[in-house]
Amino acid sequence: MNESADAAGNGLTPDELEGILREIGLSRYHNRHPLHHKMTSGQLSKGQLQAWALNRYCYQAVIPRKDAMILSHAEDPAFRAEWRKRIEDHDGSDGWNGGIARWLKLATGLGLDRDFVASQRGALPATRFAVGAYLSFCTDKSLLEAVASSLTELFSPVIIGERVPAMLAKYDYVTEDILEYFKPRPVQASRDADYALAYVRHHANTVEQQQAVINALVFKCDLLWAMLDALEQAYGDHGHIPPGAFDPKQP
Fold it and tell me: Pfam family of this protein, just one (predicted)?
């Protein structure tokens, strides 16, 4: 069975399902995107990096909101206790000393205005649509599907391991302090992915549930890929920046 096929027969074993989910990551995760390769090879201008940081902030900012929607579907107190760690990781203890604040530090370290980034006014329309689609998915779909959509965290340590050393080596204005956001993320992502994967393995028992889990991870990978497609379309060598979106050439 592959990601585009229907789960057949009596369904998959947990190991078989996990194997398909990991294969989806290998083939669809956005560390394979050309824009990521340009970033890690030092080919992006400062303006292009700024556009990436600004648009990615929209995604970072929605994470605790989508996790709150997942919590709203969960009746198990033990699940809620584990899942709310994700909100604490991003919001911190006061809303502004967690991962979201560290991403703002990255964006301002690249020369962007903090309030402008936080307002999300300069984000691409496609970014806003993608982020809204993710929030809607976690609001409207089943708890199992919403949990499965988070399994891109299985592959997050890989992209961080590629991105951080390359940015430090290729861009002389990027420092370890600017990239502080990424320091705790491999441990946090691995912890969260292990829990979500165990949940999916335990609860995706029917053919329909297994196919829904597969579809959820494909959806999430496609969403992250589409965000980079939009950045490349707008800020590439022959890009077209939509009206109202951040323009690196504007003062």
Answer: TENA_THI-4
Location of structure tokens 């993320």: 185
For residues 208 and 85, the answer to whether their CB atoms sit within 8 Å is no
Query: What pLDDT digit, counting tens, does each position of 43-68 carry?
Result: 999 999 999 999 999 999 999 999 99
Residue in the block written with tokens 């936080």 = 118
pTM exceeds 0.90 for this model: yes
What domains sit in the chain, N to C, each tagged with a CATH number? 14-235 (1.20.910.10)
pLDDT in tens, 149-169: 999 999 999 999 999 999 999
Instruction: Answer for the pair 200, 151: CB distance below 8 angstroms, yes or no.
Output: yes
Task: Annotate the chain with three-state secondary structure.
Answer: CCCCCCCCCCCCCHHHHHHHHHHHHHHHCHHHCHHHHHHHCCCCCHHHHHHHHHHHHHHHHHHHHHHHHHHHHCCCHHHHHHHHHHHHHHHCCCCCCCHHHHHHHHHHHCCCCHHHHHHCCCCCHHHHHHHHHHHHHHHHCCHHHHHHHHHHHHCHHHHHHHHHHHHHHHCCCCCCCHHHHHCCHHHHHHHHHHHHHHHHHHHCCCHHHHHHHHHHHHHHHHHHHHHHHHHHHHHCCCCCCCCCCCCCCCC
Cα 233 from chain centroid (whole Å): 19
251 falls in which pLDDT band (50, 70, 90)? low
